[in-house]
Write a structure and sequence with these properties.
alpha/beta, Alkaline Phosphatase, subunit A, four-stranded antiparallel sheet, about 15% strand, about 600 residues, globular, about 30% helix
Length: about 600
């Protein structure tokens, strides 16, 4: 194979900020830990995504904002909200619900220079003409929807509803290999477990490329995406893996949150000031309009089931790590690890939804679960169970940030990330000490942590494509037509100067970066972030936070710093216009609770 650079992108689904042991967790993730600790690696503590899945994936593959790439809103929400449709019922630009043709996608751009493949979740289109194959991947084996049973279990069909309507089925399995739709009963491997199978397919494509010297792409460097569905609900794992965590979470989510904060501090990922601030802050005990009972107020059975759900979640993360280890071991055996750019990250914050509180379309979700799954304590985690762990466990994983997935606060958009590329990082890497502790913003190689290097520089998922193209020495086609169509430029920036050590920040303190999803709005410039959260979830006014001192976004400085807020609101207006934000109708804040697989 070509000496490279090759590219391996690994995305975990709904993984929390502190869910890896290299990020302060009690969950065993030895393979990702050794990746983080390698001489040519760095952990990113300020990596930001969208607040939900498919918008993030559109940004990753396009290098631009989700409102430009087709996922200005979740496809599942677009179908229910007429504001995103024109008078003829067609999707408005940026709200197509698929990766649109106004952007050039990563595999399309690399088609003539690299062999490209994807194994795992897609969530950027449900048809052949919006599939990974259609968007340029030479090989693909993918789950098209936003989630699926990790064991490929589908409840047996029951009698048709008495009202004659179609029987409700939640997220039917839809898999494709290249341009062929797979029969989930006949064509999928047996036994099936998502992390294992996706890695099997990734390694199959890699091995084919490595060994077949007659292939038209032979000798090229490669770019392989591994997009796992773990640890997205339904929480399911092998009983032997779950048993390793038996009793570990019996003290409840607030105790775990305190442990995770200490772990983050020991790992060099948060300063003492952030630890102290988070210790003194409260955790939200509401979801939508529901008041949540505190741990001690739950019955013994409720606590046991909640703990088992968290044990299952931890087992999923460990099993995911084991599967990823097979990829890393293969690259090391083949001697290509040092010539491969590896990027691992989550797609959004930890999932804190209470699915029983969500008005899922098409049927009564709680009734469907009760009729088709066994969620008894002994069965939690098995193929025919369907559980989730809720907002309090999620906030243990997103601390010191506030909230979780689907929120525009840091808990929804700040994700764990590990970047590995020895040609740039082995000799000189950013090790950014936190200015809140009185240190310089960045000092290369000054105090290397035993768990590996750390960068506190602000980065975004939009930066990944510019970085890959920079390293591959492949220009982005804008402003020229691409495949006969006009395309948009990238909004992300290459991280190569940061990795090389020639700059301390990927994004300057004067650059404004915006987010919007489900009507929640945010704009950031350096340390300052303005947030607008509609009622009933928020105050429905602009709030201002100093993230350098208050990463939990708890102290609203809007009245104290009116000039800073005014400038950020002006930045928001510019961002809103540039990317074409369409806000949902007033009173539809519950959109983010309207569909689960984000």
């Amino acid at each position: 194979m070509s000496p490279g650079p090759n590219f391996l992108i690994i995305i975990a689904d709904d993984l929390g900020f502190s869910d890896l042991s290299s990020f302060g967790s009690e969950i065993a993730t030895p393979n990702l830990d050794r990746l983080a600790a390698r001489q040519g690696s760095v952990r990113l503590t300020q990596f930001h995504t969208a607040s939900a899945c498919s918008p993030t994936r559109s940004m990753l593959l396009s290098g631009t904002d989700n409102h430009l790439a087709g996922l200005g809103q979740m496809a599942e929400t677009i179908r229910r909200e007429p504001v995103y449709l024109d008078e003829d019922g067609n999707n408005r630009p940026g709200y197509e619900g698929v990766l649109n043709n106004r952007v050039a996608a990563l595999p399309e751009i690399l088609a003539d220079t690299h062999h490209t493949w994807l194994a795992g979740k897609w969530h950027l289109g449900l048809t052949r003409d919006t599939s990974p194959h259609a968007r340029g991947f030479h090989r693909s084996w993918s789950l098209l929807p936003g989630a699926g049973n990790h064991y490929n279990y589908t409840p047996p069909p029951g009698p048709p509803p008495a009202d004659g309507k179609p029987r409700f089925q939640f997220i039917p399995p839809l898999y494709m290999e290249d341009d062929a739709v797979l029969d989930p009963d006949k064509d999928l491997p047996k036994p099936f477990y998502s992390s294992d199978v996706f890695v099997d397919q990734w390694l199959r494509f890699y091995t084919e490329h490595r060994d077949d010297t007659t292939h038209k792409h032979a000798g090229r460097p490669w770019c392989g995406l591994l997009t796992l569905t773990a640890p997205h609900w339904p929480l399911q794992a092998d009983p032997a893996d779950v048993e390793k965590y038996a009793g570990r979470y019996d003290a409840g989510p607030l105790a775990l949150r305190a442990e995770r904060l200490e772990g983050l501090h020991r790992a060099g990922l948060i300063p003492q000031s952030h630890l102290d601030s988070a210790r003194s802050s409260s955790v939200r005990f509401h979801f939508a309009d529901r008041e949540l009972a505190q741990w001690d107020a739950l019955s013994a059975d409720e606590r046991a089931k909640s703990s088992r759900a968290m044990e299952t979640y931890a087992a999923m993360v460990t099993r995911m790590d084991t599967a990823i280890g097979r990829v890393l071991d293969t690259l090391e055996r083949d001697g290509v690890m040092d010539n491969t750019f590896i990027f691992f990250a989550a797609d959004n914050g930890a999932e804190g939804a209470l699915l029983e509180a969500m008005p899922l379309t098409g049927g009564n979700f709680e009734k469907y679960i009760a009729e088709n799954y066994d969620n008894s304590l002994e069965n939690i985690g098995r193929p025919n169970s369907f559980v989730w762990y809720g907002p309090l466990w999620a906030q243990a994983a997103t601390a010191p940030a506030a909230q979780y997935k689907a929120w525009i606060t840091e808990g929804g958009i700040r994700c764990p990330a590990i970047l590995h590329y020895p040609p740039l990082l082995a000799s000189r890497a950013p090790f950014a000490l936190h200015p809140a502790d009185g240190a310089a913003t960045s000092t290369p190689d000054s105090h290397p942590h035993p768990q590996g290097r750390v960068s506190h520089a602000l980065t975004t998922v939009m930066d990944l494509l510019p970085t890959i193209l920079d390293l591959a020495r492949v220009p982005h086609p804008y402003p020229h037509p691409f495949h006969g169509r006009p395309i948009l430029p990238m909004r992300g920036l290459s991280l190569v100067p940061l990795l090389r050590g020639s700059t301390e920040e990927a994004h300057s303190a004067d650059e404004a970066i915006g987010w919007e999803l489900f009507g929640q709005q945010a704009i950031r410039r350096g340390r300052w972030k303005a947030v607008f959260i509609p009622k009933p979830s928020g105050p429905e006014r602009w709030q201002l936070f100093d993230l350098e001192r208050d990463p939990g976004e708890r102290e609203d400085l809007a009245e104290r710093e009116p000039e800073v807020l005014a400038r950020l609101v002006e930045d928001w207006t510019t961002y809103e216009s540039e990317v074409g934000v369409i806000l949902p109708r007033p009173g539809t804040d519950d959109l983010k609770f309207g569909y689960g697989p984000r």
